[in-house]
Design goal:
By secondary structure, the chain is of the alpha/beta class. The strands form two sheets. The protein has an eight-stranded parallel sheet with strand order 3-4-5-6-7-8-9-10. α5 links the parallel β7 and β8. α1 runs parallel beside α9. The longest helix has 18 residues.
């Protein structure tokens, strides 16, 4: 495993993290016995960054992660990131949500507390929740503050509300099929010395080389995802064929190629792929510690440049 610094915090985190949205009904990993095996496999592969959220399984993901880290005896060796959803951002809710996250995670301090999304429907002023988070840092309940799924303008407003702290990271959707962050947000993150935690770095499995014959049908959170709509499937097929070809050259999996493309593209990017099995967790970790050649990086970029994912599917 290779390591990167989380923003300007000085804290070293693995170049590939583990997202644990999978520990929920949305993805089907609902048995703790399965979850702990996934966490163990990731840790043994060098992963020390674990990302969860309050809304994942209505607390199930946090509970399983906290229990696993405690059972494995590795809490002091890892960085825990969690997130407060937009509807819980009134000042009193920020404190209450954090207290419950700490309890579920079985810790005294959350390493990285992120705002999961802005309070779009609740009209909570930006400075109200950002100052509440800063107070939690002062009280020792949160070490660092991050944002998730924020536009640049609102991220700038959020930073202006803080008196002492700097936003350490932004968590954004980023993968070879969905590269919108490169237009504005990746340069912003790089310029501010933040880290970009790339969620859905494998496009919910669309970049694993599995789907090249016909559009798949799912019974999980992907069932209604436009990525897997028949209108977008030809683009997925062509990109996966190239991933498979390059993977054979490096003796890697297509997923490892897709993840390595992201960390090759910017030193600010830290992908946090999920895993439904221990084998997937170990394989994802194997995407770090080596680099694509410039020629192969460019071939994937050029293939991706031609793709237009439509979300107008009805």
């Amino acid at each position: 495993m290779e390591y990167r610094v989380l923003g300007r915090t000085g804290v070293r985190v693995s170049a590939i993290g583990l997202g644990v949205w999978q520990f929920s009904e949305s993805w089907g990993v609902t048995r703790y016995e399965d979850a702990v095996k996934i966490v163990r496999a990731a840790y043994e592969s060098g992963v020390n960054l674990y990302d969860t959220a309050i809304v994942y399984g209505n607390g199930m993901s946090e509970e399983y992660l906290g229990r696993a880290l405690e059972e494995l005896g590795i809490r002091d060796e890892v960085i825990i990131a969690t997130k407060i959803p937009g509807q819980m951002l009134a000042e009193h809710d920020v404190f209450k949500a954090t207290e419950r996250s700490l309890r579920r995670l079985r810790v005294d301090t959350v390493d990285l507390m992120q705002v999961h999304w802005p309070p779009l429907w609740h009209n909570i002023p930006t400075c109200e929740y950002m100052r509440a988070l800063e107070r939690l840092v002062f009280m020792g309940k949160v070490r660092f503050i991050g944002l998730s799924d924020f536009p640049r303008e609102l991220a700038e407003a959020a930073q202006s509300c803080l008196a002492r702290e700097e936003i350490a990271s932004m968590q954004l959707r980023y993968n070879l099929l969905e590269r919108e962050v490169e237009k504005e947000l990746l340069p912003y993150v790089e310029g501010r010395g933040m880290s970009l935690l790339a969620w859905s770095p494998l496009a919910k499995g669309a970049l694993t080389g599995k789907y090249i014959e016909k559009p798949p049908r799912f019974d999980d959170v992907r069932a209604s995802d436009p990525l897997f709509h028949e209108a977008n499937f030809p683009a997925i097929v062509e990109l996966n064929k190239l991933l498979i070809k390059i993977a054979e050259k490096y003796s890697k999996t297509p997923a490892q190629i897709a993840l390595n493309w992201l960390i090759t593209n910017s030193s600010a990017v830290i992908p946090i792929p999920g895993a439904k099995t221990p084998q997937q967790a170990s394989q994802n970790a194997g995407a770090a510690g080596w680099r694509l050649s410039f020629e192969d990086w460019l071939a994937l970029k050029e293939a991706s440049d031609k793709i237009r994912i439509t979300r107008v599917t009805y």
